[in-house]
Amino acid sequence: MDEKVSQSNGGEVVREMRKDMDQVQKKIKTLRGSEKHQAWQEWRDLKKELRFREKKAVLDTLKSCDVVLATCTGADDRYLENEKFDLVVVDEAGQSLEAQCWIPILKAKKLVLAGDHLQLPPTIHSDKAAKRGLEKTLFERVIKKLPHVSNLLVTQYRMNSKIMEWSSSNFYENKIEPHISVKNHLLTDLVDIKKNYITENALVFIDTVGCNLTELEDSEGSKSNEGEAQVVLEYISKLLSFGMGEGKIAVISPYFAQVRLIKKLLRKKKLDFIEVNTVDGFQGREKEIIIISMVRSNDKREVGFLKEDRRMNVAITRAKRHCCVVGDSETVGCYPFLQKLVQYFSDHAEYLSAAQFL
Questions:
Q1: Is residue 315 within 8 Å of 195, Cβ to Cβ?
Q2: What is the pLDDT of residue 350?
């Protein structure tokens, strides 16, 4: 917007007025008495005129634009308060609070909500507010109450079909199809990548069961698993030895303590160019290779917020050519939804023991 305004006729007027104000300000330093008072009044008059000209330049620029981009709350900007739009598109509506969405909606003659209510919902810091309905988005309510107005985009252009099929069957009634350009793409299709049992598979499951890699809890209640982090580190080293370059690999974990631990280990090995983030921090992103550290491994078979199905949907579907899950199949598999994930990888992935990496 600043660039557009700067290039407009109004922007040229604003620049000239600022030059005039600078000249007056320089002159003020040389004056005394009533002349100085008059110069200050001239400067104040110019300042008042400048605010008017700046606002007019912005409004004129907005009127000349076919498309205006803003955040939901940004649509409440003072320059847009009287604007109406033929069409408003709210992107990532599945992650937007309903109250936020209504800000641009009230300016619309026609509305399009775009998003995925089967991926992560908005972040709500109050459990009480979430339970009372704040977490439920306008997008989700429209999908459920007015299904006839919704349209599912069925072709995806990111993932190998084996990565996609688990998500499609568990979330989208098997309606998602891969575009031919990505359907069978693998790491071996990239330049100078060695062919082997890892690079020729879209899916790998590294099972930590029986390896005594138990989870720990930090003072803030977040979970980590040092043994599992070591497995991730060794797996990354293998991938790099196969020819994978920088920017191709990312590690995702549902727990911030595990993210922090893996980052620390990577720094020690001078591999801190590998991106590591939580599931929430990686939504909307993608990498050729995604490694998912599940963390949970305990005798009580507790999985915590791994139970949040949508979080796992996001994690798996960040991968383009290769997805590796590292976890304890006995702990993770005790939750029915995650048991489906373990079974799918058992049927379709290269299934390895963590002992091979320790």
A1: no
A2: 96
Q: Where are the beta strands (DSSP E) in the chain?
A: 88-90, 111-113, 155-156, 177-178, 203-207, 216-217, 223-224, 249-253, 275-278, 287-293, 319-327, 350-353
Q: For residues 206 and 197, is the Cβ–Cβ distance under 8 A?
A: no
Rounded Cα distance, 260 and 258, in Å: 5
139-167 per-position pLDDT tens digit = 999 999 999 999 999 999 999 999 999 99
Q: Hey, what CATH topology would domain 161-356 get?
A: Rossmann fold (3.40.50)
CA distance 212 to 227: 8
Q: Determine which helix (DSSP H) or strand (DSSP E) holds 239, and give its type and residue range.
A: helix 226-241
Between strands 216-217 and 223-224, the pairing is: antiparallel
Where are the chain's structural domains? 1-64, 85-151, 161-356
Q: Token pair of 259, please?
A: 């993210």
Buried residues in 130-157 as b, exposed as e (16+ CB within 10 A):
eeeebbbbbbbebbeeeeeeeeeeeebe
- 283-305: b (≥16 Cβ within 10 Å) or e: beeebbbbbbbbbbbbeeeebbe
163-181 residues labelled b (16+ CB within 10 A) or e (exposed): bbbbbbebbbeeebebeee
Confidence of residue 12 (pLDDT cuts 50, 70, 90): confident
